[in-house]
Amino acid sequence: MIQLDIDLDGNVSRSTSDAANTDIACVSKFHEGQSLASIHPDMDGRLFGAAQLEELTKSSPIILYTRVVSADRCEKLAVVEITAAEDGLGYRYTAIDVTSLPLAVGKLLAQAEVQAQKDRSQIELLKIEVAELKNLAMTDSLTGLANRRAFLARLQNEFLRARRYGTTLSLLILDVDCFKSYNDNFGHPAGDAVLRAIADKIGSTCRQTDFAARIGGDEFAVVLSQTDRPGAEIASCRLLAEITACKLPYGALSATLGIASYTHDIESIDALIEIADKDLYRNKS
């Protein structure tokens, strides 16, 4: 490793070795303003000869930590900048900062740990924010159920699974009866209360493997994985009974359900939704 003679102000006075014939161990390369925790890894621990340093410094300065011997012959730790020579031939050193080795190591490690803790905290905060944004993007804010975007994604996944593995899959689509009258007679807060009550009944009735969503104004959907047509009919009867038994100040609740069950001739989720919609309209008439 090259040893540099420096004065008390940290200026390089001369090199104790012939720089043209000596390799320098690049302990760690980093960019100005970065801490030890974010050192660029490409240069770490690599050995560079004079020709390599001359070539590297043509594009940008190299900054590194290295052990140096000061004018008082004490080993110290220096932050050294290696830049291209003004005449374009070779390179020159500038000691940016020089500190007694034990003190510098402790200081640098402490700074690195503080920065690492900050980085970890920021990463955790970012993870939380991303999770919250993802949840907001996939959740209906009024009812707390999944929204249409989440419903379509889940239905697509279940549809592909059923088609690939030959498993059963059913879909329920529910429409609140006479919903407009709640808004007209009691106001929109009453309509919102009705939607939340329906959502609560759907959530309490469904199995953990089912997927419930609000897909429109007063429309809800439930994806029933591993469920055939008879199983879907049982689930729909149970859900309608729970909704009918729900009492609100605005009067009794009722809803209409449509059912669609996957068969091999159904080629898309749009076709499955259309079958459930048609079944719902038949049941309303």
Could you explain the architecture of this structure?
The model is unreliable at 1-48 (pLDDT under 50). The strands form four sheets. Strands 2-1-5-6-7 form a five-stranded mixed β-sheet. The chain has a four-stranded antiparallel β-sheet with strand order 9-10-8-13, with helices on both faces. The chain has two domains: 4-107, no CATH class; 148-284, Alpha-Beta Plaits (2-Layer Sandwich), CATH 3.30.70. It is elongated, with a radius of gyration of 35 Å. The longest helix is centred in the middle third of the chain and has 37 residues, at 101-137. Strand 6 and strand 7 form a beta hairpin. It contains seven helices and 13 strands. The chain is α+β, with helices and mostly antiparallel strands and 285 residues long.
Which key features would you list for this structure?
single chain; about 280 residues; alpha+beta; five-stranded mixed sheet; four-stranded antiparallel sheet; 13 strands; disordered N terminus
**Structure summary, number of beta strands:** 13
Rg calculated over all Cα atoms: 35 Å
Oligomer: single chain
CATH level-four homologous superfamily name of the largest domain: Reverse transcriptase/Diguanylate cyclase domain
Question: What is the terminal-to-terminal distance?
Answer: 90 Å
Q: What is the helix/strand order?
A: EEEEHEEEHHEHHEEHEEEH
For the biggest β-sheet, the strand order reads: 2-1-5-6-7
The proportion of residues forming helix, as a percent range, comes to: 40-55%
CATH architectural type of the largest domain: 2-Layer Sandwich
**CATH fold descriptor of the largest domain:** Alpha-Beta Plaits
Helix-strand makeup class: alpha+beta
Task: Please state roughly what percent of the residues sit in beta strands, choosing from under 5%, 5-15%, 15-25%, 25-35%, 35-45% or over 45%.
Answer: 25-35%
Tally of alpha and pi helices: 7
Uncertain runs with pLDDT below 50, 5 residues or more?
1-48
- Major sheet, described briefly? 5 strands, mixed
